[in-house]
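Quick one, probably user error.
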């Protein structure tokens, strides 16, 4: 047996969810869902829609942006592998970057330019005409700068992985953190939009907690404690028979 995929994937999923609830993404979810499905917001609110007709395009949309993010993750790992002979230095550099991104994330509520809601109406309108596959790829490319602190955190972590496959898996879980709430919105639009309102009302607290998590992750990577935590987590999962991250 050898160690499997780093259990940092759990953090990657959480960071993906943090990206989803950011002011850059969350307000645009209904618009994107409407564009890729062809249903109006009024139809989705009323429930006057076919579930399959809205869910299938939403799945294609999510798979499309996942493919782009996974490619970015594998690229980051490939670049990081050139520094594998200086693994300790790479971990410290990546940890320092993640700490800086966490601090940057904490500052976003207090700097208007960093906390604005994006309203790219032209991009959303083109999402409908281009289909969910093109819309998903466009979302990944256009929103990469917008979700920079969270995406940058996972790309930095991916750069420290041993193989490009593991880097890709990290970004797949990051994408899953974005995709799950998006797909839940397609299935239960009214309930999820109500939850969105609660998240917006408590965004300051959520930002503080999320920023603290990013900084903690960076400090642990910088000091080497993240690797130790990963080993302990895999041992704990082994004891429970739930270590899905182990490969034979």
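Nope, works fine. Designed sequence:
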């Amino acid at each position: 047996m050898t160690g499997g995929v780093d259990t940092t994937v759990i953090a990657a999923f959480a960071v993906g969810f943090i990206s989803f609830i950011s002011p850059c993404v969350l307000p645009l979810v209904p618009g994107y869902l409407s564009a890729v499905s062809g249903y109006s917001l009024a139809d989705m609110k009323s429930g006057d829609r076919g579930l399959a007709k809205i869910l299938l395009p939403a799945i294609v949309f999510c798979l499309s942006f996942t493919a782009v993010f996974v490619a970015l993750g594998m690229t980051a790992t490939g670049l990081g592998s050139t520094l594998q002979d200086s693994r300790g230095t790479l971990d410290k550099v990546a940890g320092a970057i993640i700490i800086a991104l966490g601090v940057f994330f904490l500052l976003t509520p207090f700097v208007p330019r960093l906390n604005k809601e994006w309203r790219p109406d032209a991009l959303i309108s083109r999402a409908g005409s281009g289909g969910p596959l093109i819309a998903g790829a466009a979302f990944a490319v256009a929103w990469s700068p917008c979700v920079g602190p969270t995406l940058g955190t996972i790309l930095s972590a991916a750069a420290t992985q041993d193989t490009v496959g593991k880097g890709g898996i990290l970004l797949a879980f990051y994408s899953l953190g974005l995709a799950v709430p998006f797909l839940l919105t397609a299935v239960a639009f009214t309930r999820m939009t109500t939850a969105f309102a609660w998240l917006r009302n408590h965004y300051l607290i959520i930002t503080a907690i999320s920023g603290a998590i990013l900084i903690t992750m960076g400090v642990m990577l910088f000091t080497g404690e993240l690797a130790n935590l990963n080993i302990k987590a895999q041992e704990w999962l082994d004891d429970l028979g739930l270590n899905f991250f182990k490969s034979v």
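The CA atoms of residues 43 and 156 lie 41 Å apart.
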